[in-house]
Amino acid sequence: MAAPDSLPVDSAASPAAGVRMFEHLAALQARVLAADGFAPAACAFVTELAERLGCDRVSLGVRHRDAVELVAVSHGQPGANVANDRELASAMEETLANGVTVCVPDCDGPSRIAAAHSGLVRRFGGSACSIVLMHRGKAVGVICLERRGRNRFERAEIEQLEHLLCLVGPVLHLRWLDEQPLGARIAAAVRVWLALGKQGDGYIKRLGFAAALLLLALAALMPAPSYIGGRARVEGSVQRALVASLEGYLQAVHVRPGDRVTSGQLLVELADRDLRLEQRKLVGQLDQHENAYAHAIARGDRAQAVVHMARAAEAKAQLELVGSRLERVQIVAPFDGMVVAGDLSQSVGAPVELGAPLVTVASEERFRVIVRVDERDIAAIAPAREGSLALSALPWESLSIRVVRVSPIAVVADGENVFEVEAELLGTSGELRPGLQGVAKIEAGKRPLLASWSRRALDWARLTLWSWTGWP
Hints:
This protein is an alpha+beta fold. The chain folds into five domains: 165 residues, GAF domain (Beta-Lactamase, 2-Layer Sandwich), CATH 3.30.450; 34 residues; 66 residues, CATH 2.40.50.100; 55 residues; 104 residues, Elongation Factor Tu (Ef-tu), domain 3, CATH 2.40.30. The chain is 41% helix and 29% strand. Strand 4 and strand 5 form a beta hairpin. Helix 2 runs antiparallel to helix 5 and helix 8 runs antiparallel to helix 9. The radius of gyration is 48 Å and the shape is rod-shaped. The N terminus is likely disordered.
């Protein structure tokens, strides 16, 4: 005896029977809708049903996957623990397995598979009838009615009860669904929607749309780490630019960029011929003034002695100045490292000005990373934030970095306004060289993926709206 999903029209039924059925329906739905919450509604429903049908016990079970969870018994307290009655639960699960109404003893002759119902009847005596609650073509619960004694369930009574439950069952199911978590409700709606899609030709489209909608919901709700990227370059943590200490000409260049140097190694030589000539001239002048001073002392000419002594002191000072300038014509490495800038091999003999940069030497012991961050993203960067660095020369190796300093002054690079962020390397790699470039990603907290992807577009739209309308 199948549980119908819609109310059939029976032209042979008497008007009085139809009126009584609608009275039962109105009373049951009123009890369900008037209760505050699903548990009180279920308890009120099974109690009203037991009183109207003269049953000793009426129980309600809700389908949970392939099992039944007992939620209410007649004349019981709302929310009472009825899950311990395994015989009753087994009878309800048996009804779900059959997919039809199960009655013991069967009013139409031999019963279907009803071992659990037979055990339930032997335990309490009398008769038992279980009816499936349907909602949109799917079994969502079971109602089990029990009578003790010889008062059996008649066929007409069961049919009328099936008609009532096919109308009240969806109301009960919706009350139960309203109290489920949001995720469970969304999953139930998607399952129903897909089930409807299987009935037509657009199942694949519906499935694809549902998957896209699910991915969009996950992107909009699920927080994920957000990163801010920018172009990056590797520099030595200690870097020294060596400049020309005097005006002159390049005489010799001993290194080129990429060469490793040691502390004190000669790098560049400036021409010193003019300084050597001036040094000889000053040495001669110093000797003359010292001899003249000695003759003036011998003659007792104190005035001339003072004059020549002052001139000798002046020549000596100039000689010391020329000596110090001669020492600076040789540019040496201040520490062990690598030449990273200054290819002067093709400029030997060219004039250089005072203070002109010649070569740049960087230390190879420690490195730092300079990341160029767009001005629109700089507010999310702060010291101590960590990130990762991927270099063009080492694309398969990711290096960990930590922000040390954020420059407060913006610079223009490649037509964009950027801030330079200094970071330190947390790991080491034997293949690092000063001057390597790549891309760095710095953590910027957690936010939904959709918010991260649309942030730039929203900022642009907000700024454009403000520029047009002045709205904040």
